[in-house]
Design a protein that fits this description.
This protein is mainly beta and about 250 residues long. It contains 3 helices and 13 strands.
């Protein structure tokens, strides 16, 4: 089986990035929630995939992240970010061997759906690596994951200085086990030394329905620039939120 064919998932619709609902923070108190899916365009048995096996790794992705102001009278949504993407995913090693390595690359659009002076949007081409290494602690379930992502901007007219705050890449880190405690980090550094740090700590409340998906108690910490797209150049002091997640 080629690496391209190995990239395909058993089902067409799958989970893409973490999905959670969290409450807390300050100035103002708020809820932050995210949902994310990806869709494999060609299945294994289709005419296209059978004629061109390389097509099996082609995906559509969509992620939505919202920040909901709970302190104001009308409780408005502070901002919502929409991120559709088209990308290709290569599985570079066999997951059955234990740890694995994968590579994704493609196009991503991000915008907040507003107009006028509140409009924010970027278009990027990105490349993202993923690697997972399992430790031999007797059960073989504890792992360390690393996911660097780099991008170049195709369009950033709504916010021409965004690279100074968001930069051209980010680093994702993860340590834990799928059926236990998990700590993850997302680190960004802008070209003007504007940084952001997000830490997520989660623990399962019940056994997962299937791998990686279930109900988890979730604590999130954020500090730095760009918690929302509209505030990409606004620095936020330490924000703590707690809630639950379905995918982490």
């Amino acid at each position: 089986q080629s690496p391209s064919a190995a990239a395909a998932q058993p089902s067409a619709l799958g989970f893409h990035e973490p999905m959670y609902f969290l409450v807390g923070g300050h100035d103002p108190r708020s809820a932050r929630f995210q949902f994310s899916f990806r869709y494999r365009i060609f299945d294994d048995q289709g005419v296209v995939a059978e004629s061109f096996p390389v097509a099996r790794g082609l995906y559509l992705g969509f992620t939505q992240t919202s920040l909901w102001d709970l302190a104001s009278d009308s409780k408005p949504f502070r901002d919502t970010s929409f991120r559709p993407s088209l990308f290709y995913r290569w599985m570079l090693s066999n997951p059955e061997d234990g740890g694995w390595v994968a590579l994704s690359g493609g196009y991503e659009h991000e915008s907040n759906g507003k107009d006028g002076t509140n409009s924010r949007s970027i278009d990027t081409l990105f490349l993202r690596g993923e690697a997972r290494y399992y430790f031999d602690f007797g059960d073989g379930q504890t792992y360390f994951g690393i996911a660097p992502k780099v991008w170049t901007y195709l369009d950033k007219d709504d916010n021409p200085d965004i690279a100074g705050y968001r930069g051209y890449g980010e680093l994702g880190l993860r340590l834990g086990r799928d059926d236990g405690l998990m700590l993850s980090a997302l680190l960004r550094r802008g070209t003007e030394d504007k940084n952001s740090t997000q830490l997520d700590l989660s623990y399962p409340l019940r056994q997962s329905v299937f791998s990686g998906v279930g109900a988890f108690l979730h604590l999130q910490y954020f500090n730095g620039y760009g918690e929302t797209l509209i505030d990409y150049k606004a620095s936020r002091s330490s924000q703590f939120r707690v809630g639950f997640s379905l995918v982490r």
